[in-house]
Amino acid sequence: MSLLGKHILSCSIFDIELLQQLFSVADQLQPVSRGKKVCRILEGAVLGNLFFEASTRTRLSFDSAFMRLGGSVSNTTGEAVTSISKGESLADTSRVISGYYDILVVRHPDEQAVYEIAGATHIPVLNGGNGAGEHPTQALLDLYTVSREFKRLGKEISSSRIALVGDLRYGRTVHSLLRLLSLFQNLTIYCVSPSILPMPRELLDMAANGGHKIVETGDPKVGLKDIDLLYATRVQKERFACTETAFNYGSDFRVDQALVNAHCKPDVIVMHPLPRDSRAGANDLSDDLNQDERLAIFRQTDAGIPIRMALFASVLGVDHLIPSALRDATWYRPKYIGPNDASFYTEK
Ligand code: NCD
User: Fold this and answer.
1) How far is CA 35 from CA 31, 63, 280, 303, 344, in A?
2) Structural domain boundaries of the chain?
3) Residues with a CB atom less than 6 Å from ligand 1
4) CATH match of 11-134+304-328 with 2.70.180.20
5) pTM given for the model
6) Which end of the chain is more exposed for a tag (fewer CB within 10 A), N or C?
7) Which atom of ligand 1 is nearest the CA belonging to 129?
8) Comparing 11-134+304-328 with 136-300, is the CATH topology the same?
9) Which CATH architecture has domain 136-300?
10) pLDDT digits 0-9 by tens, 149-177
């Protein structure tokens, strides 16, 4: 199967072979994402980036990925500035703007909206997050990060032990990630959440039917023992229905140095899709892990560029042009982006 011309709305379209193809394209584009090489395979193409919900890294990394491949980007942020506020249907908007762009990225708080937009156009649509549904491109960059981190540590994804921690009910990144992880073999997956915020049953059943061992627990001490990957999430308060608003999300789910030291192995990898809530009392992933090399969150955000470039190149059918299009970049770039990067980035 190939991604050529496809909408990418859910991780359910992926199989292992497709993931391997995509990751190999992302590997080829690593030097472009790091400003070492130029590759203008999308010169002349235009991306319509439609974000009807808050975003920093998803929107900006889609922008950067498209522009680094030589394409141009047009951004719309918020419904208020579109004709949707005048009563236009999503289908009309989709068909109209499809005449302007070669590909669309859409983030929308309503889970169905991205399907309505995709249903009204043959221009490829990439889901940048649909309500509490899915966030496929985030899961792809997450899995790409896991595969690179595990390779560095001499581990395989199959047969590993993984904890998904936090708001598993409304966290769309873990919904998509669980779909991708389920493609591997023999995983043990701990779903660690308050009982009011569990992983949706349909996704648990899908993973169990794939032969994986699923353990649901509200106790991080149970869920974090012997794991290879801890994937923490932010509480999605903006999606709480009134039944959950009074819920007090306790410090049990705060992922900090003390918790990781007490319950995790020395070679665990700690990830989070970000943003993390760093305000006092937020009980999210703590800043006190920032100097701990097990924390992979910035390697994870960096992976968003090669993965999103690989998606654009594959969906628009120019991935085969990469080797002959690569040339040296000439502007100044520091050797490493962040102060802690030296031990993780070996490519020139
Ligand atoms: C996530 C999202 O928007 O779903 N952020 C992201 O895109 N990296 C996670 C979140 O908002 O908590």
Assistant:
1) 6, 15, 36, 13, 17
2) 11-134+304-328, 136-300
3) 57-58, 129, 135, 138, 172-173, 234, 273-275
4) no
5) 0.97
6) C
7) 4
8) yes
9) 3-Layer(aba) Sandwich (3.40)
10) 999 999 999 999 999 999 999 999 999 99
